[in-house]
């Protein structure tokens, strides 16, 4: 998913290579995306595991301006919503919310659009 986001022209134009799992490096520039696996569980059938997982992936679009966070979120949704391929079997936007937080690097505001995607994927 990280590689797909980095390769997408719309996302890359706004965030470049700044797409990371779990945390954004301290002091690194923004806008940026941070991905989090919030929940995941193996799928089951009456005969045992089906080889698929289902869960929720949160993707946070961070920027110094509200409009920048919104633009990066729209590019992310355009790239991922409805995705179905060999590993990711289904990825759908479930919800999104906007907020802001103090930037620990320079005491200004950072703006965020937080997106929750419902996901089904096959373990590699």
What assembly state would you assign to the polypeptide chains in this entry? single chain
The total of beta strands comes to 5
CATH class: Alpha Beta
Output the CATH topology: STM4215-like
Would you identify the regions where 5 or more consecutive residues have pLDDT less than 50? none
Our Rg estimate from Cα atoms comes to 15 Å
Indicate the overall shape: elongated
The span between the termini is 13 Å
The helix-and-strand class reads alpha+beta
What count of structural domains?
1
Note the total helix count. Answer: 3
CATH superfamily: Phage tail protein-like
Q: What is the percentage of strand-forming residues?
A: over 45%
**Sheet with most strands:** 5 strands, mixed
Order of strands, main sheet, comes to 1-2-3-5-4
pLDDT averaged residue by residue: 92
Draw up the topology in text:
Blueprint: H1 2-7, H2 9-15, E1 19-21, E2 32-45, E3 48-63, H3 66-80, E4 88-102, E5 109-122
Parallel strand pairs: 1-2
Antiparallel strand pairs: 2-3, 3-5, 4-5
Helix pairs in contact: 2-3
Question: What does the model show?
Answer:
The chain has about 120 residues and is of the alpha+beta class. It contains three helices and five strands; from the N terminus they run ααβββαββ. α2 runs antiparallel to α3. The longest helix is centred in the middle third of the chain and has 15 residues, at about 65-80.
């Amino acid at each position: 998913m990280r590689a797909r986001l980095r390769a997408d022209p719309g996302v890359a134009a706004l965030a470049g290579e700044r797409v990371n799992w779990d945390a954004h490096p301290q002091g690194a520039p923004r806008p940026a995306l941070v991905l989090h696996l919030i929940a995941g569980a193996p799928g089951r059938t009456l005969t045992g595991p089906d080889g698929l997982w289902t869960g929720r992936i949160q993707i946070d679009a961070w920027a110094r301006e509200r409009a920048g966070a919104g633009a990066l979120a729209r590019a992310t949704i355009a790239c991922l919503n409805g995705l179905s391929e060999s590993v990711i079997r289904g990825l759908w936007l479930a919800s999104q919310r906007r907020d802001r937080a103090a930037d620990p690097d320079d005491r200004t505001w950072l703006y965020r659009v937080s997106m929750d995607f419902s996901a089904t994927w096959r373990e590699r």
